[in-house]
Design a protein that fits this description.
Strand content of chain B: 35-45%
Distance between the termini of chain A: 14 Å
Shape of chain A: globular
CATH architecture of chain A: 3-Layer(aba) Sandwich
Radius of gyration of chain B: 14 Å
Structural class of chain B: alpha+beta
CATH class of chain A: Alpha Beta
Radius of gyration of chain A: 17 Å
Oligomer: heterodimer
Number of domains of chain A: 1
Number of helices of chain B: 1
Number of strands of chain A: 8
Largest sheet of chain B: 4 strands, antiparallel
Strand content of chain A: 15-25%
Structural class of chain A: alpha/beta
Strand order of the largest sheet of chain A: 1-2-4-3-5-6-7-8
Chain lengths: 246, 88
């Protein structure tokens, strides 16, 4: 682990060439693998920026697109999240394009070793799987993403989200799944379904389900935080990315 | 989990946000992860004017019992008002 890193906000061209805000953090010095971080639905917030810096402190280049750049440029994260939700949320095609742009941005960093992984939490967990099934990446981490193998329990017309089952066979890289045994979205039954589907497709993956933890156990500022699961989960992430992004 | 499903509606009125009063034109109602309320999920209400930017917003994060009590209080209040006072 290094304490020397450089963190900054910049702008890149995302899906369809749209300008999107990106928060990046890179370690000083040696060659590094990189991680595209996908923020959760509450937005491009302080907590997720801290995760970006954490990756850099552990020797990875890391960057996160503001997925709400188009709806609310310059707005506070909560206002931007509300504006994006009111317009129906982030379409999958746009998410994939924005993550692709972040991956290209990371590969272009002077210290990059060319390898890029992706990680997301909550809604970003599903989007991490989506990106890994749509882009050529080197590793992916899904932290309790719901609706990977089932559709949302609502037929509301604004819901743009559907199960990823039809594209799981396109998974381009090893997948690490971190889940809570007490979570219902995704439930242990749903993660078992995902396990069976990935096995059927002969994909490389490893899943860990933590007892005594539910949804969002990594979120240190929320009552769902479970320190034992979070610490163990981070150690699994360092091991996984260490093997696949070196 | 993020529930994704969101009720949206148009409305007429005013709201006071972080930068002062604005004309309220839209609202979103959903049950999802709150930003500030210390709970896993909350009933969220955003009163908005998209034409004035994302900052033209009043946000509420309520636990389910509080949200129901608020909704019932609104309906009781409207029901008690003489019909001739209600402008359409």
């Amino acid at each position: 682990m290094t304490s020397d890193l450089h963190a900054y906000t910049t702008e890149i061209s995302g899906f369809a060439g749209d300008p999107i805000e990106v928060y990046a953090a890179v370690p000083d010095g040696a060659s590094f693998g990189s991680v595209a971080v996908i923020h959760h639905m509450p937005g491009f917030d302080e907590q997720t920026k801290e995760i970006v810096r954490k990756f850099a402190a552990h020797g990875y280049g890391a960057a996160m697109a503001n997925l709400y750049s188009r709806e609310a440029p310059g707005a506070s994260p909560d206002d931007a999240a509300a504006a994006a939700r009111a317009r129906g949320g982030v379409p999958d095609e746009r998410l994939v394009g924005d993550v692709a742009a972040v991956a290209d941005f990371l590969r272009a960093q002077s210290g990059s070793n060319g390898k890029v992984g992706v990680i997301g939490y909550c809604s970003g967990g599903r989007q991490s799987v989506l990106a890994a099934c749509s882009l050529d990446l080197d590793a992916a981490v899904d932290c309790y993403g719901a609706f990977v193998v089932v559709d949302p329990p609502s037929d509301h017309p604004l819901s743009t989200v559907s199960a990823l089952t039809p594209i799981l066979g396109n998974l381009s890289c090893p997948l690490l799944g971190l889940f809570g045994a007490d979570d219902q979205y995704p439930s242990p039954e749903q993660t078992e379904t995902l396990r069976a589907l990935l096995t059927e497709h002969a994909k490389e993956f490893e899943f860990h389900t933590f007892e005594g933890a539910g949804h969002a156990f990594f979120a240190v500022e929320r009552p769902s935080y479970r320190p034992e699961a979070a610490v163990a989960g981070w150690n699994l992430i360092w091991d996984f990315f260490g093997r696949h992004l070196s | 989990m993020c529930t994704y499903n969101t009720e949206t509606l148009e409305l007429t009125g005013s709201a006071k946000g972080a930068t002062g009063w604005f004309r309220a034109t839209n609202a979103s109602v959903y049950f999802d992860h709150p930003v500030h309320h210390p709970a896993g999920h909350a009933l969220m209400i955003d009163v908005l004017n998209p034409e004035c930017g994302a900052g033209a917003r009043v946000g509420l994060e309520l636990d389910a019992d509080s949200a129901r009590a608020l909704a019932e209080a609104i309906l009781r209040t409207l029901a008690s008002v003489p019909a001739q006072l209600i402008e359409h």
